[in-house]
Amino acid sequence: MNIEQVKQFIKQVDWGYLATTDGQKVGVRPMGGLTWKDNDLLCATFASSDKVSQLKKVPYAEYCFCDSTGDRHVRIAGPCTISTDNAEKFWLYKAVPALKDHISDPTSPDYVVIKMTPDNIRVMDSTDMKYTQVKLK
């Protein structure tokens, strides 16, 4: 897979798991409400969530996206920032229409954007259980 195929794969599966840590505890949770903006992966969440607290302590995370068979998956890791910028929040709110079902006011201070700039993307798309590194540029 190349980076464009990875982006299409994520669009097709529509959600993945996000792993974060505070340096002591690890948290993994299902995440939707995400899309690519240029080379950044943006995801909606709530400022009051554990993941935001963890990312403020350790600003690095990893997503895992799997197809319905579980045979193919993509792991994307990289540094993260938490954006409260209303322009970025509105952009994601418009780009992911399903967010309207969960966020009534895109200017709410509790709605924030996790912005990941991937530095490691690996794909497993065969039964040999080996990862292939995806070139980022």
How would you describe the overall organization of this protein?
This protein is α+β, with helices and mostly antiparallel strands. The protein has one domain: Electron Transport, Fmn-binding Protein, Chain A (Pnp Oxidase, Chain A), CATH 2.30.110. Helix content is 21%, strand content 39%. The chain contains three helices and nine strands. It has helices at 3-13, 50-57, 86-95; strands at residues 16-21, 26-31, 34-37, 40-46, 60-66, 73-83, 111-116, 120-124, 132-133. The longest helix is centred in the first third of the chain and has 11 residues, at 3-13. The protein starts with a helix and ends with a strand.
Structure keywords:
3 helices; Pnp Oxidase, Chain A; 137 residues; 39% strand; alpha+beta
CATH homologous superfamily title:
Electron Transport, Fmn-binding Protein, Chain A
Identify the overall geometry.
globular
CATH architecture: Roll
What is the straight-line distance between the termini? 13 Å
Say how many strands there are.
Answer: 9
Biggest sheet record: 9 strands, antiparallel
Report the radius of gyration as a whole number of Å.
Answer: 15 Å
Topology overview:
Layout (H helix, E strand, L loop, with lengths): L2 H11 L2 E6 L4 E6 L2 E4 L2 E7 L3 H8 L2 E7 L6 E11 L2 H10 L15 E6 L3 E5 L7 E2 L4
Antiparallel strand pairs: 1-2, 1-5, 3-4, 4-7, 5-6, 6-7, 6-8, 8-9
